[in-house]
Amino acid sequence: MSHPRHQLDDVIHSPVRFAIVALLAAAEKAEFGYVRDIVEVTDSALSRQVATLENAGYVQVTKGYVGKRPRTWLALSKEGKAAFTAHCAALRAIADGVPEREPAGRGQPATEW
């Protein structure tokens, strides 16, 4: 059995990207400025992180207008939802502890290493 840390998604694991994906997992879509304010990052920091998530296929970016004002909306893709679910499951498995197994050559339970 391998440690659950191997199931963590390197793209999502960054704290800012994790916060973005978690926010988008709870909504159909969210306006860029809303995500920026909730995650508490600058426009440029959010743009960089969203670009990474978009390149991985986890976030879809849609541009449009509200009246005459340009707007950008972010949405989690199907792949992004699956990756987030798997990443959270790995975090839960790590937090719950790795099942005990006997360490090589010591003959004692893993809790007594």
UniProtKB/TrEMBL annotation:
Domain Winged helix DNA-binding: 16-94
Gene3D superfamilies on file: Winged helix-like DNA-binding domain superfamily/Winged helix DNA-binding domain (1.10.10.10)
Pfam families: HTH_34 (PF13601)
Transmembrane residue ranges: none
Entry-linked PANTHER family: BSL7504 PROTEIN (PTHR37318)
Name this polypeptide is given: Transcriptional regulator
Organism from which the protein derives: Streptosporangium longisporum
